[in-house]
Amino acid sequence: MSFFTADNLLRLARRQQCPLCTGAKTMDTALCRRCRQKLPTHMRSNLEGIQRREPSAVSRAVRQAAQYIDVHFSSIRRFGGGKKR
Question: Is residue 78 very low, low, confident or very high in pLDDT (cuts 50, 70, 90)?
Answer without folding.
Answer: low
